[in-house]
Amino acid sequence: MIHLKPFEPSDYQAFIGWHKEATEADMYSWAGRTFKLPVTTSQLDQYAKSAAEKTLPVKLFTIIETATNEKIGHIQVADMDGLNRSAFLNRIFIRSESRNKGYGLLLMEEMKRYIFDTLGYHRLSLYVLSNNQKARWLYQKAGFKDEGTMRDARFFNGDYLDLHLMSLLSTD
């Protein structure tokens, strides 16, 4: 099982540690151009500050494995629009040693509870890059539906990548 806690400076070292072996492509696949390698505390300070200054609320969370109380990942809930009752999931990350153990699906279930039950929102959306088929499969398994593809929407390492919009409604 997992639970979420607000992302705070005490989580920075775990976050930095997860990315010590990361490549530029690894970082781009989950965070776009948000971070430069190596990830530093000053980058994380700026990331948290930027989230706090957004017009539509953004919440940053650390994912905790409940049995061990270990920090195993990070997720961002962005564009929290109370008027339209919708939000976006971004920067979804599970550390490498915790992958392929079911935490991704547990995280999606936790996010559905938070967005639909706790906040009372109706719509949850996310984008996934075309080269991240494993994530796309996970989101489909969690109930997200494909809404459309922005062709050649991102340029990385000399290649264009499609960006897929997926969503889940409280009524799905």
From TrEMBL:
Family matches, as SUPFAM superfamilies: Acyl-CoA N-acyltransferases (Nat)
Matches recorded under CDD domains: NAT_SF
An example Gene Ontology molecular-function term: acyltransferase activity, transferring groups other than amino-acyl groups
PROSITE patterns: GNAT
Pfam families: Acetyltransf_3
Domain N-acetyltransferase: 2-167
PANTHER family tied to this protein: GNAT-FAMILY ACETYLTRANSFERASE, SPERMIDINE N(1)-ACETYLTRANSFERASE
Name of the molecule in the record: N-acetyltransferase domain-containing protein
Organism in which the protein naturally occurs: Halolactibacillus alkaliphilus
